[in-house]
Design brief:
Length: 185
């Protein structure tokens, strides 16, 4: 997901570029990503939530699959509840609990999946505050959930204007490309 268009927040044109680059490198690595799971540009809360639910509870998934959820876009820290919300295009920053998707919501969605290996890549502000509970800790057998966060809990994510991508996604994609190139030699 690369949410770049917002009703009440600043436009983030680089987020669509982030999602396109991540999509390309993951497909190159052999991941099957149906077009209906690639959300970019303007994405309303219903589509975002429904797509996440459909992705994690897809009946074609086996428990040995590795599921990767990637998000680049705004996030909102709610000072009242101390929750952080991923921001769909129609989020109201003054009431993020109405249309936003909290890290708690993500945990509840992921719990419904039969996949034993889940990777969340969160390229947004405050992503370091994502905690999904002990059930999701990585175990010695490699199963569980891994969260790759672009920032510390109270830190903003950074953009690289010269490449029109976020710093985190840029270096992650470049590292993955280099690894894939080296492994194909």
């Amino acid at each position: 997901m690369g949410i770049s268009e917002y009703d009440k927040l600043a436009r983030l044109s680089f987020c669509q570029n982030d999602a396109d680059a991540m999509h390309e490198v993951l497909r190159w690595a052999g991941y099957d990503i149906p077009n209906y799971n690639k959300l970019t540009g303007y994405v309303d809360s219903k589509l975002m939530r429904d797509t996440m639910i459909d992705f994690f509870v897809d009946h074609s998934i086996s428990n040995d699959d590795i599921l990767i959820l990637y998000y680049s876009g705004h996030s909102i820290h709610d000072d009242i509840s101390s929750e952080v919300y991923l921001a769909p295009s129609d989020i109201d920053p003054n009431s993020p609990y109405r249309n936003g998707i909290s890290f708690g919501d993500i945990a509840r969605i992921v719990q419904r999946s039969i996949a034993k290996k889940v990777v969340l890549i969160l390229d947004c502000c405050y992503s370091g505050s994502a905690k999904l509970g002990k059930r999701f800790d990585i175990r010695t057998d490699g199963e569980g959930i891994c969260i790759l966060a672009a920032s510390q809990p109270y830190q903003e994510a950074t953009v690289l204007p010269e490449v029109n991508r976020s710093m985190y996604t840029h270096y992650l994609v470049e590292g993955l490309r280099e690894d894939l190139c080296n492994s194909n030699r």
